[in-house]
Design a protein that fits this description.
The structure is a single chain. The protein is about 45% helix and about 15% strand. With about 250 residues, it is of the alpha/beta class. α1 packs across α8, α3 (about 75-85) runs parallel beside α4 and α4 packs parallel to α5.
């Protein structure tokens, strides 16, 4: 009998684009992919911090470079991706939030969140997919979504709307791109300690509420996302597409 072999989690020879890579989940994903052997292009609006991160990764023996990218600027993003394509892996971690009660939402706040979380994510994903299709290569496209793409939340109507939309276009693109051997999935974190979530974690009552909702009794850390992104990027998840990975400590188990 020949024993089955575990598919490789290694990403040697693969090129990855990680947006929102200057901090938080995007930074963690970039480090994880680098450690797994990928040549990672870090992208965000803050090029100074990106270059410092890329330098640290290279000093540690990994392959990395940095580019300035504002995902909400569709034309510029498409041009940048086209010039650098093809990328075997995309991690779309650029995102934002503007929390308020639904009846207090302003049109400006709605547009800022939607332009980045939906429109920017959509066209970035299609730009990377187009490069792969033109090159005749398979790939793994990963959108960082949220547990809020599967539940509702107080003061998060706009954010929930955008993340539900990400889940929708991820499924549709997975169907279209399947024949090209391009997989499209999402990672759905719970509340994770990042610079973006500092105001939430500065409120002891809110932290207590979060820890009660999360069945494992603790909030998320960036490191909780790193193994998941390597899995989805690698051959180990070769039959996964059009779906999501909930990394929520059991929040949505109710």
């Amino acid at each position: 009998m020949t024993l089955p072999q575990t598919p490789s989690f290694r990403l040697d020879g693969k090129r990855a684009l990680v947006t929102g890579a200057s901090s938080g989940i995007g930074l963690g994903c970039a480090v994880a992919l680098s450690e797994a052997g990928a040549d990672v292009t870090l992208a965000a609006r803050s090029i100074d911090r990106l270059e410092d991160t890329a330098r640290q990764l290279m000093e540690a023996g990994f392959m990395a470079n940095a580019i300035e990218m504002d995902v909400s600027n569709i034309a510029a993003t498409q041009n940048s991706v086209a010039a650098l394509s093809p990328f075997d892996i995309l991690v779309n971690s650029a995102g934002t939030a503007a929390h308020s009660l639904a009846i207090d939402t302003t049109e400006e706040d709605y547009d800022v969140v939607a332009d980045l979380n939906i429109k920017g994510a959509y066209f970035l994903t299609t730009a990377v997919a187009k490069g792969l299709v033109m090159a005749g290569k398979p790939g793994s496209l990963i959108n960082v979504s949220s547990q809020m793409a599967h539940v509702g939340g107080i003061e998060r109507a706009v954010y929930c709307a955008t993340k539900h939309a990400v889940e929708g276009f991820t499924k549709a693109m997975a169907i279209e791109l399947g024949p090209h051997k391009i997989r499209v999935n999402t990672i759905c974190p719970t509340f994770v300690r990042t610079p973006l979530t500092e105001p939430t974690f500065a409120n002891p009552d809110r932290v207590k509420w979060l820890e009660e909702k999360i069945k494992l009794g603790r909030v998320g850390e960036v490191t909780d996302m790193m193994g998941a992104v390597v899995y989805l990027a690698s051959d180990a998840s070769g039959l996964m597409t059009g779906t999501h990975m909930l990394i929520d400590g059991g929040w949505t188990a109710d």
